[in-house]
TrEMBL record, chains A, B:
Consists of three domains: the N-terminal catalytic domain, the anticodon-binding domain and the C-terminal extension. GO terms for biological process: prolyl-tRNA aminoacylation. The gene is proS. This is Proline--tRNA ligase. Its main location: cytoplasm.
Length: 484, 484
């Protein structure tokens, strides 16, 4: 960032959301484009957000019995092909390693697109008795999927960072509880940490993870009216366990097949975060994820410089002591206006302004990102006051996202109404659905919207008696939306 | 682990160290061999050790100005080849990705063997003014080097986990300070966390990292008398900055070339840890890295079962409360002897035995791993007592490794003496050296020992006036050793 001309966001979130998003990501220093199409470089300010997401999730995983492990990044082609037993027409879009040094490999190796096929054989090896179960493994890593689409940092990249959890259980109940535990933890991350209320649901049969019994997901609404699949948690039934021979001896020494799950959250969560909260001034971050939560900006004239800076530095030190992530911006070569713009661009949730008046009155002026709301507060008890204001900022972001979401779920009871409503407003349209994939096709073909979820509870009555598309009996409620 | 017959280590550390090491790694549940030669699966008990190493180092890095980032795992061949400007005869032994999905790539991609060539161009982009420096980036990732050697978990694997730090500075002083800061942090990890005193030194000119001005390393002595390069920290001078155009405008707006460093520590540290401290009963871990630091084993008869287990559970809860990583082993289907063996195999540093006598006398019996030393202590103040004993265990491990190291540094002043001393004892031999690579060759050829380091201080007087090999004037002191 070498000059003021580069600081501002020039694109509009409302009118050119794609360009705006790309500009925020780059100018806030989150990521750059790599020389190879489809790859990005995650810069420190971006990676720090991912680290905080990891810290939260990883802590919750470990509190609920998960252990981390690390499996090879390469999977032999023959291993990957074992998924053909489970998945018809399996044709992985992967990066293939064919040479090591100057030698051609006897068997080519896939860079992992997901690790079921290399993890499952080891789970089979390690599972002998019911006492070895449940077995809960997770790894934080990157995976590669060779899909040819336009690069969108954190949303669509050939390599992406994620965690993938893989568990085995003695029975369906244990595996289903596991599936729901992880879904709830993902939803908690979105709500409590990212200030972004998601919907929880189940994928329709024809859109499940290949080989899964049930795919659950959380869906988040983006400001352009599209839905993002924000994390998934799969109950795999016994299909993977059968294909990879994950069996155990029960208390009577009888051999049984395990029930397995897998679940993952990728850095797409960061994309959803950035896109939802940010604005035409730049990045907006919830305090729980902001690398710096507070910036203290002293505003001095020559005659009061020392005392203003000292007062600001003391205040910053007190916040730091209290565990707030705080930066003191006492740079000499930048004026306050420049600093304000820069901190807004970088998404620091709370700015503390200290001028001669604040020093004289033993006060501090707080300004919220994103709405600029200001309040002058007592210097005494500042750490507690700042924490309250950070909570308020989180609450504002959450309330705004929640209000948007609530207004963007509409009902429809005909094909034309689905098309018209999504075409005009975006968002979600819920309707009765017969359960037949054929009834999704005309919506897909016309406006590229699809069924992004159905209710988690299979016994829930559909909202209408008839399928909105074919008019036959409705089996469940479908949520249509355009999707990332 | 399904039966008692599998529990014991059958190989001997003294007589078959290679087989013993492999057996400890597998039976203690640290790693398994992957289906592809050269790759391993890191199991939860192994990965937990790596996570603790990460936690320590990452905290120290961040305290000293380092920020984490993430660069692509692939490097275009043309980028990698830019290192040819720096390194003569550059021929990377890497894994090549040649196909994405069913398409052949226009340019093949190397799976990163190290990331200088993809990071440096971005550092160049991000560095404009002296205010952007120092720039300190680090990433935790895996890298792949396609070397055809026998697989040895954590020591020799084609894919390995590591961190790689890359920094840029305005001048030599800043870059050299950085190089030494990281070397000191690596040494601190070995000493304070791993209980393993290393040597600090510099690589001879002919064995530097390609393109580096100076390569420093820490070296750790293994029980078989071989040295392990335990971490490296390179001062790269301006060679990479020149090749990749990392320049900055100084305060006078003059353009200058930056000075850069890189530094890395891999999971080889885990290998050194396991090999040094473990014994014929299995794994031995220093308390700072042990996933479980303490196991509480209640030993009951039918008539006192409830009270013994309750007493043990209370004690474990108190330790847990105090922040000790503790496990209560109240399994019914295993007898105490089996449990003791299992916990010894798994390297739990401290065992707390609770029998009816301990309950009656309000005491607890502590047993140290590895030497089995026991002490019966008061129940009151148990958390503090346990912490003292954990410190004692660390101290014992450190003292033992230090004693071994001190006894294994010998002097020599002739070629025959070098060959004889290393041939007979292993360990390090230090001698005067003229500085010519040719004088290393006869030792290398005869017994595969090499100069693993020279003193950090370039001005240090050599221990002898003459080169032990050629008899010419000695320029410095060389440390010969066989090496991993």
């Amino acid at each position: 960032m070498s000059g003021e001309q580069e600081l501002g966001i020039t694109e509009s979130k409302e009118h050119s959301p794609g360009e705006w998003y790309a500009e925020v990501v780059q100018k806030a220093g989150l990521a750059d484009y790599a020389p190879m199409g489809g790859f990005i470089v995650t810069r420190p300010r971006g990676y720090a957000i991912w680290e905080r997401i990891q810290d939260h999730l990883d802590g919750w995983f470990k509190d609920t019995g998960v252990t981390n492990a690390y499996f090879p990044m390469f999977i032999p082609e023959s291993y990957l092909e074992r998924e053909k037993d489970i998945v018809e027409g399996f044709d992985p879009e992967v990066a293939w390693v064919t040479h090591g040094g100057n030698e051609e490999l006897e068997e080519r190796l896939a860079v992992r697109p997901t690790s079921e096929s290399i993890i499952a054989p080891f789970m089979a090896d390690w599972t002998r008795s019911h006492r070895d179960l449940p077995m809960r493994l997770n790894q934080w890593c990157s995976v590669v999927r060779w899909e040819a689409t336009e690069t969108k940092p954190f949303f669509r990249t050939k390599e992406f960072l994620w965690q993938e959890g893989h568990t085995a259980h003695t029975d369906e109940e244990g595996a289903w509880d596991e599936t729901m535990t992880r879904l709830e933890q993902y939803a908690r991350l979105y709500e409590d940490v990212m200030a972004l209320p998601p919907l929880k649901g189940r994928k329709p049969e024809h859109d499940k993870f290949p080989g899964a019994h049930t795919t659950t997901s959380i869906e988040a609404l983006m400001p352009d009216g599209k839905s993002v699949q924000a994390a998934t948690s799969h109950y795999l039934g016994t299909s993977f366990a059968e294909a990879f021979d994950i069996t155990y001896a029960d208390a009577d020494e009888d051999e049984n097949t395990a029930h397995t799950t897998s679940w993952g959250l990728s850095w797409r969560a960061m994309g959803a975060l950035i896109m939802t909260h940010s604005d035409d001034q730049g990045l907006v971050l919830p305090p729980a994820l902001a690398p710096d939560q507070v910036v203290v900006v002293p505003i001095w004239q020559e005659e009061n410089k020392d005392e203003v800076i000292e007062y600001a530095a003391d205040l910053a030190a007190e916040l730091d002591e209290a565990g707030v992530r705080v930066e003191l911006d006492d740079r000499e070569h930048r004026n306050p206006g420049f600093k304000f713009n820069e901190h807004e661009l970088n998404g620091i949730p709370l700015r503390v302004e200290i001028g001669p008046h604040e020093v004289e009155d033993e006060e501090a002026t707080l300004a919220h990102r994103p709405d600029g709301e200001q309040e002058t507060v007592d210097r005494e008890g500042i750490a507690e006051t700042v924490q309250e204001h950070l909570d308020t900022v989180h609450g504002k972001l959450y309330a705004s996202a929640e209000e948007t979401l609530e207004g963007e779920i509409r009902e429809a009871d005909s094909r034309e109404e689905i098309l018209g409503t999504i075409g005009q407003h975006g968002g979600y349209v819920k309707c009765g659905w017969c359960g037949d994939e054929d009834c999704e096709d005309p919506i897909k073909d016309a406006i590229a919207a699809e069924i992004v979820m159905v209710p988690l509870d299979r016994d829930e009555e559909p909202i209408h008696d008839a399928c909105a598309i074919c008019g036959e009996d409705a089996e469940e409620t479908a949520y249509f939306a355009k999707s990332y």
